[in-house]
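Hi all, long-time lurker, first post. I run a small reading group and we've been trying to get comfortable going from sequence to structure in the token notation. Rather than ask abstract questions, I figured I'd post a concrete chain and ask someone more experienced to write out its structure so we can walk through it together at our next meeting. Sequence below, copied exactly:
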Amino acid sequence: WTAEYRASAEITTATGTDPVVVREGPGTGFDTVGLAAHKANVDVACRTTGDRATGPAGVSDVWYRIGEGHYVPAAFAEGGTDAPVCRTR
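-- Answer (accepted) --
Happy to help. Here is the structure in token form:
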């Protein structure tokens, strides 16, 4: 099975080996739900604002939703900027 990404991004880390923590929401106060490996390609469903994060892509308060209840900071991703804004419920 293959699919076309709506807005793809590649996870990046400063070390090139450490994973990026995937959280339940757009901030460090949300529970950890997994890890995204360096160089992993992810489908960015939408983008939202949350806690500021500093990563290889700079400092940003933008977070990408990569799945239901799965968020990574945009500061640790290359790409994804063309994803739509997340709708609030």
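A couple of things your group might point at:
The longest strand covers residues 46-55.
Residues 12 and 76 are 5 Å apart (CA to CA).
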